Amino acid sequence: MSPAYLALEDGRVVEARTRVPGRTRGELVFTTAYTGYEESLTDPSYEEQILTFSYPLIGNYGVRAERFESDRIHPRAAVAHEFTEEIVEWLAGEGVPAVDHLDTRELVTSIREGGAMRCGVAAGEDATPDDARAELEACVPMSAHEDIGERVSVAEAETFEPEGESVADVALVDCGAKGSIQSSLLDRNATVHLLPHDVDEATVESLDPDVLFVSNGPGDPESFVNAESLVDSYVGERPVAGICLGQQVVANALGGSTSKMEFGHRGVNQPVRDLDSGRVVMTTQNHGYTVDDPGNLDVTQRNVNDGTAEGLASADLDVLTRQYHPEANPGPHDSLDFFDDVLALARGENPL
């Protein structure tokens, strides 16, 4: 097989083996998840990133569409120590460059020590290190992708009804929502109105939802100005919830602030402590930004490893958010009760 090259922001060029040819660029990040590669590759939060798997063998239990979190692969390229043929066929079918046969342990260590970095990839018979460097030169920081929401959000509003009698109407602002968020709400007999990231207030008002829910998504939360404006308009008038990027958007709307993390949280074993009960749960996470200042909200949960805010709430404003993914596909299901609490808020109850 032909060689491939990764040009890194720190000046190095790493040689690998081409599995799917192509040239691309993006922010180089890693996930520690040892299962769930299908869910990770179809997670919209990886848009404009190059995903490195720290687990050495990827594809060992096949590829099944029912595990997908969206309708396509989102990372610009995939990197592993070894990909199986089945996953290579899937990546090739979607035109996503893939490389393997490199020291991913060393690559992950570099990201841990130096932070997520811009990266250029060149793979294929005619690929050269200079091709990878050219891609790197054209790569911009994640904060520069101000239109990233357009690439991961639905274009038009859609409504999904549960099989049973509806218990609440949820306005889910799609900033790159994982399919499992919608499924978790439908499984609890909620009606889900899936809305574009730039939906106008009039559309939301016409639906008269019981709760405004901001989803996860890629990039800098400050790029999602419309979602932030919606939260600002509706908070205090109706319950507001958020997951991942959604937590960051809600915090920004309520006087808080966010910042880019050194290398983010991506994996299925992040420990989170509830500050009220002291209970620690294991969580699935995928984010590169965090809430520094919660503004008018209280921090209710923190990451055990680095102390970052994992949960925000306000009993007075009926706001409840999580930085991690309670729907956890893949990953532990320790925190599925978050959706029960959100729907309790929607019904006028107060679980906070």
Task: Characterize the structure shown.
With 352 residues, this protein is an alpha/beta fold. The protein folds into two domains: 3-140, Carbamoyl-phosphate synthase small subunit, N-terminal domain (Glucose Oxidase, domain 1, 3-Layer(bba) Sandwich), CATH 3.50.30; 148-346, Class I glutamine amidotransferase (GATase) domain (Rossmann fold), CATH 3.40.50.880. The protein contains ten helices and 19 strands. The protein has helices at residues 37-41, 85-93, 104-114, 129-138, 148-152, 179-186, 201-207, 225-234, 245-253, 337-346, and strands at 3-8, 13-20, 22-31, 49-53, 57-58, 77-79, 82-83, 98-100, 117-123, 158-160, 168-174, 190-196, 211-214, 240-243, 257-274, 280-293, 298-303, 309-314, 319-322. A ten-stranded mixed beta sheet has the order 10-12-11-13-14-19-18-17-15-16, sandwiched between helices. Strands 1-2-8-6-4-3-9 form a seven-stranded mixed barrel. A two-stranded parallel sheet has the order 5-7. Helix 8 (225-234) packs across helix 9 (245-253). It is globular and about 60 Å long. The N and C termini lie far apart (57 Å). The mean pLDDT is 97.
Distance between the termini: 57 Å
> By helix and strand content, what is the structural category?
alpha/beta
The number of distinct structural domains comes to 2
Average pLDDT, rounded to a whole number, is 97
The stretches of 5 or more residues where confidence is low (pLDDT under 50) are: none
CATH H-level superfamily title of the largest domain: Class I glutamine amidotransferase (GATase) domain
Identify the CATH architecture of the largest domain. Answer: 3-Layer(aba) Sandwich
DSSP strand (E) fraction? 25-35%
The Rg value, from CA coordinates, equals 20 Å
Helix segment tally: 10
Order of helices and strands: EEEHEEEEHEHEHHEEHEHEHEHEEEEEH
